[in-house]
Design goal:
alpha+beta, Ribosomal Protein S5, domain 2, 2 domains, four-stranded antiparallel beta sheet, 11 strands, 26% strand
Length: 329
């Protein structure tokens, strides 16, 4: 969506980026192994307003999801806002390097219900949406590869060493098989013959995605043979799960989710709260359940045979004051 002034110059624009859910292959994907992820039906929307009467700069709007933060605030309570502003600046600097002439003051507003810091790709959704909205306001359109590169610049602010999976899935949509080796990305759109009825639930995380990735990297350096074998097992399970997804074998896919969760526990990124969430989902009828994302808290999800079962499980968790999201793909 765009709005223009009397001179025909765009002054407002907005664009959205999808969240993501990793089905299989977390952490191993950072080291060149494959993963499977899907684009969620909800994400984040970034609205940008350009004021050409002011010199180039960035600020948050006074309304919207992050309206209480400003680029001048430096209190501890604004650490999230400061991080977001740094990411915005990196994205805008990248856009200028690509030839966009940014000669206005840009006010940004973030909207949407996708929760932050729980492993659902909120930073990727934010990065993709920001660059798309910025291009629109300048009547420009990025190629998918350009959008990927720009979003990667912003994602490094949040994750330091992102695999690229989150924002690639946000850009492409659907269910994607993803693998990155020696800087080259192999992406495969996956088609499933049976609908996936999922229930997502989440809680607070211990640290950031970058912290969890670093934790695994340190352990991998300390015990290289053990972690190499563990990553190989994760890869083998991912391949089996990917085939089960395409064959419509939900029971086998559920077993692959359970096994992937066990491997992630062996990696040291599963907390007792994540284990408990998966146990609850299985008790409520899930064919399989696992954590999703970097771990150390965050999101777990379960796969159900029917949407009715998934909705019933979601309601049961809500009655226990747990946040849930029922997604059918």
């Amino acid at each position: 969506m765009t709005e223009t002034n009397h001179s025909g110059i765009c002054t407002q624009s907005s664009a959205s980026g999808s969240g993501k859910l990793i089905l299989l292959g977390e952490h191993a994907v950072v080291y060149g192994y494959s993963a499977v992820a899907l684009a969620l039906p909800k994400g984040l929307k970034v609205c940008i307003e350009a004021d050409e009467q002011q010199a180039y700069g960035l600020s948050f709007a006074q309304e919207g999801r992050f309206g209480t933060f400003s680029s001048q605030t430096r209190s501890q309570d604004s650490s999230e806002g400061t991080l977001l502003m740094k990411a915005f600046r990196q994205g805008f600097d990248w856009a200028q390097a690509q030839g966009l002439h940014l000669n206005a003051h840009y006010k940004l507003k973030v909207e949407g219900a996708l929760p932050f810091k729980v492993g659902l790709g909120s930073s990727a959704a934010l990065s993709v949406a920001t660059l798309k909205a910025l291009a629109q306001i300048h009547q420009h359109e990025w190629s998918k590869n350009e959008l990927f590169e720009g979003a990667m610049v912003m994602e490094r602010v949040f994750h330091h060493q992102p695999s690229g999976l989150d924002h690639r899935v946000s850009i492409e949509g659907g269910i994607q098989g993803f693998q990155r080796k020696q800087g080259e990305i192999n992406l495969q759109a996956l088609h499933h013959t049976q609908p996936l009825h999922l229930v997502l639930t989440w809680g607070p995380r211990q640290g950031t995605t970058a912290d969890a990735v670093s934790r695994v990297a340190i352990k991998k350096a300390e015990y290289p043979i053990y972690y190499q074998e563990l990553f190989k097992q994760i890869e083998s399970n991912t391949q089996v799960g990917q085939q089960a997804l395409q064959d419509g074998d939900l029971n086998k896919l559920g077993l692959c989710f359970d096994l992937n969760h066990k491997f992630l526990r062996d990696l040291g990124v599963v907390t007792p709260a994540l284990d408990q969430a998966c146990i609850q989902l299985r008790k409520l009828g899930a064919l399989g359940a696992k954590m999703s994302g970097a771990g150390m808290g965050g999101t777990s999800f379960g796969l159900f045979q029917t949407q009715e079962q998934a909705l019933s499980a979601s309601l049961s968790l809500q009655e226990q004051n747990q946040p849930t999201w029922q997604v059918s793909i």
